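Typical record is below.
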Amino acid sequence: MEPMIYIDVVFLVSWGMDTFLLWAAGRISGFTAKKWRVFLGGFLSALMYCLWLCFLRKNGGFLLSFLLLWGGLFAVYYPKQGRNWLRLGGSALGGSFLMGGGINMLFNMTQAQRIFGRGMVVQKAYPWWLLPWSVGMAYVFLKLAARWLQAHIVRRREYCTAAILWRGKGVEGRMLIDTGNGLQEKGRGVAVVELSALLPLFSREEQVGLLSGNRMRLEWMSFTSLGNPDGRLWGIRAEKLILSFGEKKIIHKNIFVGINMEEFTGAYEGLVPPCLLEEE
């Protein structure tokens, strides 16, 4: 006897799950969207899935689920950059895996799905020993990825990405939005980047000279602080400083970028004042 599946129940459950998954992917990745777009994205994903079931009489498998997931992300957030696609897609896939595994365990252990009809009852018992293994693996992952999670999830709104172009070369790094950075040069804010992140902009000989204390290729501005006895902040006159914050991109031309001779201890390579995130 074939199990009986009610398409209205499948649609409502899929709509709710897809909507929550799309919302969670945006929250984890640092993207926001209007509520009606999130609900619409979940609605379209659920509708396409149910139409597939009705007309083709097949589940569709992983490929269909993957395409519907990316279609929902596109409808809700419309990411324009490749790395934003990867951030959203990775967050959605991770959330789908965790949410699907948790619900599967709940249904198998409690048979809570009986509320939707006996035709959807899963008979096989959930192997209990998978639970401690899953918890242990999750703990190890969190410990190993603590720094990445701190920068990309817990404090993601405090960071941006900066691309620095100088003398035909470019580097990119993660920047902390430093509200206490009040440095200005010619009326514009000053980003400060650690020396190791900027070394690829220099030739091999210049790199050796910089590490040896030679500042011949650098500009400077007056700056005094604890640990800076010469009263100067050394830096370069970048051709472009491109700041990316979510889908927002700000370009500053011919701007002074300071150099911190020591590495920062956090999960970032530089500091950016909030004023540089405003359009010129």
